[in-house]
Amino acid sequence: MDSLIPFTTSGSLVDCVDRKMLVVLRDGRKLQGVLRSYDQFANLVLEDTVERIYHQDVFAELHRGLFLIRGENVVLLGEIDLDQEDEVPLRQVEWAALEPYHKQEVNDKKYREEAKAQILFERRGFCKEGGEGDGY
Where is the Sm domain (predicted)? Predict the structure, then answer.
């Protein structure tokens, strides 16, 4: 009966090794690469990694090569369906053409998050991220 209980630990990644994966990190970066290895802390090793940025209906890629990701920074990990990968209705452009738009979006989001944190701190008594009580 115990064999029917699904893995809920890093052991569940065993089926993902040698497959193309999408990894979303806490800082918002989106990486695609082949999962080569992992450990009990869900630290990941990606090979042939590319970082993707998006803006409206276009995207750009920057080759990053071999990438080691600390497990605590992973927000999402998912397999990329190779049959449907090319059917995405997005147009690829050069990294340099898209990077200024992406940086502006990141800065705008950071500003909004800081404003939200300040309001929650002043009106509701929430702790600011990285402040007292946020350590682990």
Answer: 8-83
